[in-house]
Each structure stands twice: as structure tokens, then as C-alpha cells.
Design a protein that fits this description.
Blueprint: H1 10-56, H2 60-69, H3 81-107, H4 114-123
Length: 135
């Protein structure tokens, strides 16, 4: 019985693998974007606490300026970080994932990580219990 993706040339498997690797980098970038979102949100909450403390200590003028100018401020024109994340997801992340899946389906019979699977088969020590082909 032939395995899925067996007829796919190595060069195509490598190219499709690069598409997948590019998506992996986008996934990592998305994680950093979520970190940015959480860090800015936490910073804004801390700043709000600082404003309250300054006001309580009689520094209302400074507290008012910070509250007016910085607390709740957009990080990009018209956007809070959650909106940046949502726009990234809708504009870039979702389409990239869809294109990656389409490329994989059309060129490798839907086989994920075909290049890596071939590399594993080439590099493993056949017959060694810690180098088995399947789990």
C-alpha cells in the first residue's frame, strides 16, 4: 500500500515545507503580538493605579494629565491592542493559514510535514526502539 505523498517530488515537498515553515514563523509572531497586547493592557491598568495613588497623595494636576493623556490611549491611530490583534488575524493570519492548507492539499495530498517525515525516515536508525517510524 502506497503512503500518502509518496509520488510528490522531493523539491516540491521541500517547497511546501518552506510554506509551512513560514507559517510557523507567522504563528510565533502572532504569539508576540498577543504578548504585546497583554503587556500594554497590564501597563495601562498599572498606570491607572498610579494615577489614583498620585491623586490620593495630593498630586491631582499630574494625575489629571496622565489620566487624560495616557490612560486608555490608543496604541495606533484609533486602535487598542485587541483591535490590532483582530485586524492582524483577519487580514493576514487567517488568509495565510488558508493558503498554506490549500498548497498542502493540492501538492502533497494534504500530508503535513512531508519533508520532515522524509527527513525522519532518512535519519532514523532502523530497528532501534527509540527511532521507530510510528508512535
Amino acid at each position: 500500500m502506497a503512503e500518502r505523498g509518496e509520488q510528490v517530488p522531493d523539491s516540491t515537498a521541500q517547497a511546501v515545507g518552506k510554506v509551512g515553515e513560514a507559517l510557523e514563523y507567522v504563528e510565533r509572531a502572532r504569539g508576540h503580538l498577543y504578548s504585546f497586547h497583554q503587556l500594554i493592557g497590564h501597563a495601562d491598568l498599572l498606570l491607572g493605579e498610579a494615577v489614583d495613588a498620585l491623586r490620593d497623595d495630593g498630586h491631582a494636576d499630574i494625575a489629571d494629565i496622565l489620566a487624560t493623556e495616557m490612560v486608555g490611549r490608543n496604541v495606533i491611530n484609533g486602535r487598542w491592542t485587541f483591535q490590532v490583534v483582530e485586524e492582524f488575524d483577519d487580514t493576514y493570519w487567517h488568509p495565510f493559514r488558508a493558503h498554506t492548507e490549500r498548497v498542502r492539499n493540492e501538492l502533497t495530498d494534504g500530508e503535513r510535514h512531508l519533508h520532515e517525515a522524509r527527513m525522519k525516515e532518512e535519519r532514523r536508525t532502523h530497528g532501534h526502539p527509540d527511532h521507530s517510524k510510528e508512535p
